[in-house]
Structures are given as structure tokens and as C-alpha cells.
Write a structure and sequence with these properties.
Blueprint lengths: L1 H5 L22 H6 L2 H23 L8 H14 L1 H33 L1 H14 L4 H12 L3 H25 L3 H9 L5 H11 L1 H12 L1
Helix pairs in contact: 5-6, 5-8, 7-8, 8-11, 9-10
Length: 216
């Protein structure tokens, strides 16, 4: 009975021989290098630099289109002389000032919006009016109002930062469950204390998204 079952024709048995040779494909040096992502990206950058250099030399107008070598030379000279670090610091200071003012104004608007219906209506009205408006469209008006200088740039930065942070923060506050709100109220939290201890921690992911969008 056992022999009949073991030799039934419909049973397929895989026979693995321990003597079968193991075939291993050897990878050449060029293929191993090609598999490195940073090497491929470096090659692409090198090709772009060569194309930049050739086109700049063919055009022959350094003022209109300097070559890659001239650009690198000017970059190194301005870093050594301190021009680029100084102007980078000024730009970062302006950026931080505009970003900070936008965060403060967004915090005030969202606090008013979460505390009263009038505040919510005010935030919705202002965001529907100004959020679709590109910041670059306000630059001519900012130049007229504040003149040439950091004032007009800060105004444009505040406009770019304010509405993104306010919208995301307000959406995060509205998504907080009523259970958490009632727990905070049962502990006697009202107004700013409720916002600071309950709403901000619960809505932190949405607030962080708004901060990232505003920074961008």
C-alpha cells in the first residue's frame, strides 16, 4: 500500500541535488559604481556644468550669461571677502522678522476665532479675501506704502506666512474632540489657558504643517 502511494504518477516530487553547481553572477566594477546613487547624481551635475561652460563660452557675454568657471570664481571671492555671508545674514534676519510677525498675527486671529463666532467670521472673511492673492501681487503696493527697503519685504513675508499658519491652526483647533474640551473645562480651564494647555497640544500636527508651509 505504501509503495503504491509513493509512486503515484500525479504526485510531483522536486528533487534537489546537493551536487548541483551554484551559479553566482559577478558584478563588474563599472556596474557597482553605477548602482551608487550619489555617483549617478554627480555625473548628471558634471554634465550640466560642462553644458553651462560650453554655452557660456559660445555666447561670449559674461554679463548676460557667465560661464560655470566664472560663476564659481566669483562665488569663492565673495565668500572670502565676506560679502555673501553678510548679505545672507541680512536676508535671514529679514526672513525671521517677517516669519515671527506672521506667527504672532496668526496666533491672535486663531485665538479670536476659537473664542467667539465673530472672531471665526473675521478669520474666514480675511482668509477668503487675502489668501488667494499671491504675495508677489502685493509687492508694488508694498513698495508704494513702505518704499524701497526691508519694510516692503517684511510686509510681503507676513502676507505669505499669516494665512497659511492661521488656516492650518484654526482647522487643527476645530478638529479637537469635544471630549478633550470638556475635560479641560472640568478642570477649570478657560480662554487662553484652554488654548494653551488643551487645544495647542491636541492640534500640534496641524499647527506644525502650517508652520512648514509658512516657512516655505
Amino acid at each position: 500500500m505504501t509503495d503504491l502511494v509513493s509512486f503515484r504518477p500525479e504526485i510531483i516530487r522536486d528533487v534537489h541535488s546537493s551536487d548541483a553547481p551554484v551559479v553566482a553572477k559577478t558584478i563588474g566594477l563599472a556596474e557597482r559604481i553605477y548602482r551608487l546613487g550619489f555617483v549617478r547624481k554627480a555625473v548628471i551635475l558634471a554634465v550640466l556644468a560642462v553644458a553651462w561652460e560650453l554655452y557660456g563660452r559660445w555666447l561670449g557675454n559674461p554679463l548676460l550669461f557667465p560661464t560655470f568657471g566664472q560663476t564659481v570664481e566669483a562665488f569663492v571671492e565673495n565668500i572670502v571677502s565676506g560679502v555673501i555671508p553678510q548679505r545672507t545674514l541680512v536676508s535671514l534676519q529679514t526672513l525671521v522678522i517677517g516669519y515671527g510677525i506672521g506667527i504672532v498675527l496668526a496666533a491672535l486671529l486663531t485665538t479670536l476665532a476659537i473664542g467667539s463666532r465673530i472672531g471665526a467670521d473675521l478669520l474666514e472673511t480675511l482668509t477668503s479675501m487675502f489668501n488667494p492673492l499671491p504675495a508677489i501681487a502685493l509687492l508694488p503696493l508694498a513698495l508704494i506704502w513702505f518704499g524701497l527697503g526691508t519694510g516692503s519685504i517684511i510686509f510681503v513675508l507676513v502676507h505669505s506666512v499669516l494665512w497659511a499658519i492661521a488656516l492650518n491652526t484654526h482647522a487643527g483647533f476645530r478638529s479637537v474632540s469635544n471630549t478633550l474640551r470638556m475635560v479641560g473645562q472640568n478642570y477649570g480651564l478657560r480662554g487662553l489657558n484652554l488654548v494653551r494647555l488643551i487645544l495647542i497640544p491636541a492640534a500640534f500636527p496641524a499647527i506644525l504643517t502650517g508652520l512648514k508651509v509658512g516657512w516655505a
